[in-house]
Specification:
alpha/beta, Aspartate Aminotransferase, domain 2, Aspartate Aminotransferase, domain 1, 2 domains, seven-stranded mixed sheet, four-stranded antiparallel sheet, 12 helices, 15% strand, binds pyridoxal-5'-phosphate
C-alpha cells in the first residue's frame, strides 16, 4: 500500500532548535546550573502568561500535583475526586499524601470531569477535586469552581496538557486555586522534564517554594547571592523537587514559541477533522463550547460501526509506518489500582477502549497527515 511509503511518522516531536541549545549552553557556561536566576525568570514569565499571581517551578507535573495536595493538607481519611481517564500520575498524587482517590466518570465529548460526574461520587469525606484539562481540552472550570464552592471543596487543576488552551477567552490556569503543569516532551512545550505550579495565593506560593526545597526558609540561590553568611533553617519536612537553570533556560525559549506552536497544532487539527469527515465511524475531539483547546493530543473515538477494533487499527497503522497511541488510559483498570474499588465508569471505559491518539507535531507535513488519514480511510472500507 502507498500508505507504507516514506519514513515512520512519530506521534509527537518537540519543537526544539538552535535557540534552546544556545540558551542551555549559556546556562552551563554561566556556572549556575541548579535552581537560580533563570528558574526565577521562567516562573515570572510563565505565571504572567497564564494570568496567575505566582509560579513555582518544580521537577515535573507529578511533583507539582504532590505539592498541591500537601499544601491543601490532605492526608489519610480524606478523599479526592479524580478522573480515572487520565495519565496515572493524577491518581497517584493523591496516594502520595495518603488520601484516597475516588474515580469519577467523564463526559464523552471532552474526556473531562463535570460537576455532575463529581456529584455522583462525592461523599462526606471528600475534601478536594483534581480536575484534568485532558489532552489539552479545557475542562469547564467555571462550572466546576461554582460547584466546588457550593460543596466547600478545593479544586486543583491538573493542567499538565493545558498550556495555551483557553476558557472563556482566558488562559487555562487563570483564576485557579492551584494549577499544575508539565514540560515533559509529550506536552505542548518542554524542558526535557519539568513542571510548574501556579496560584494567586502569596502564602501558598511561599510555602510551595519551601516545600520543593527541603523545607528551607532561605533558598540556596538566596544564600549564594548573599554577601554575608545566612544560616538556613528547615521549617517542615520538604522535598527536593527543584528545576535546574538549564531546564528553565530552555523553558523560556519554548514559552516564546507557545503561540506559534498552539496556532500550528490547531491548524493541523482542523485539517485532520476536515479530512476525517469523509471517514465513517471516526469521531474526532474538538473544542468544547466554553473554550478552545491546544490539541496536545488529537484523539478520535471509533464508533460501533467502524469495522476494525482499536488495537487492531493501531497495529495496521504501525505497519504503515504511523506511530499512533491508544487513547487516554483508564487508571482504575491498571494493576496499581486492582481492588481499589470504583463506581461504574462507562464513558471512561468506552473512551479508553475505543479511542486513539493520532500523530500531530509542529513540523508535520500535509503529506504525512494525508498518509495517516489514508490508513484510516482504507480500514473504514471507504
Ligand atoms: C503528563 C501528565 C502528567 C505527568 O506529568 P509529568 O511532568 O511527566 O510528571 C500528569 N497529569 C496528566 C494529565 C498528564 O498528561
Amino acid at each position: 500500500m502507498s500508505a507504507g511509503a516514506g519514513a515512520r511518522i512519530p506521534v509527537m516531536v518537540p519543537w526544539l532548535g538552535e535557540e534552546e541549545a544556545r540558551a542551555a549552553a549559556d546556562a552551563v557556561l554561566s556556572g549556575w546550573v541548579a535552581q537560580g536566576p533563570r528558574v526565577a525568570e521562567f516562573e515570572r514569565a510563565f505565571a504572567e502568561r497564564v494570568g496567575a499571581g505566582h509560579g513555582i517551578a518544580v521537577s515535573s507535573c507529578t511533583t507539582a500535583l504532590h505539592l498541591a495536595l500537601v499544601a491543601l493538607e490532605l492526608g489519610p481519611g480524606d478523599e479526592v475526586v479524580v478522573p480515572s481517564l487520565s495519565f496515572i500520575a493524577t491518581a497517584n498524587a493523591v496516594r502520595y499524601v495518603g488520601a484516597r482517590p475516588v474515580f469519577a466518570d467523564v463526559e464523552e465529548a471532552t474526556g473531562n470531569l463535570t460537576a455532575a460526574t463529581v456529584d455522583a461520587v462525592r461523599t462526606p469525606r471528600t475534601k478536594a477535586v483534581l480536575a484534568v484539562h485532558q489532552g489539552g481540552v479545557p475542562a469547564d472550570v467555571h462550572a466546576l469552581r461554582a460547584a466546588c464552592a457550593d460543596w466547600d471543596l478545593a479544586l486543583v487543576e491538573d493542567a499538565a496538557c493545558g498550556i495555551g488552551a483557553t476558557v472563556g477567552g482566558k488562559s487555562v490556569g487563570h483564576g485557579a486555586l492551584l494549577a499544575a503543569w508539565s514540560f515533559h516532551p509529550r506536552k505542548v512545550i518542554t524542558t526535557g522534564e519539568g513542571g510548574m505550579l501556579t496560584t494567586d495565593d502569596a502564602e501558598w506560593a511561599e510555602r510551595l517554594r519551601r516545600l520543593r526545597e527541603h523545607g528551607m526558609n532561605v533558598s540556596a540561590a538566596q544564600r549564594h547571592a548573599s554577601g554575608t553568611p545566612i544560616v538556613e533553617s528547615y521549617l517542615e519536612v520538604g522535598f527536593n523537587y527543584r528545576m535546574t537553570d538549564i531546564q528553565a533556560a530552555i523553558g523560556l525559549v519554548q514559552l516564546g514559541k507557545l503561540d506559534a506552536i498552539v496556532a500550528r497544532r490547531r491548524e493541523l487539527a482542523a485539517r485532520y477533522t476536515e479530512l476525517l469527515r469523509a471517514v465513517p465511524g471516526v469521531r474526532p475531539v474538538g473544542d468544547p463550547v466554553h473554550g478552545e483547546g491546544n490539541f496536545q493530543s488529537y484523539w478520535v473515538l471509533l464508533a460501533g460501526e467502524f469495522p476494525v477494533g482499536r488495537d487492531r487499527l493501531l497495529g495496521v497503522l504501525a505497519e504503515a509506518g504511523v506511530s499512533a497511541r491508544r487513547g487516554i488510559m483508564a487508571s482504575h483498570l491498571e494493576p496499581a489500582y486492582a481492588g481499589h474499588g470504583a463506581a461504574q465508569l462507562p464513558v471512561t471505559e468506552r473512551i479508553s477502549r475505543d479511542s486513539l491518539i493520532l500523530p500531530l507535531f509542529h513540523t508535520m507535513t500535509r503529506e504525512q497527515q494525508d498518509r495517516v488519514v489514508s490508513v484510516l480511510r482504507e480500514q473504514a472500507g471507504g
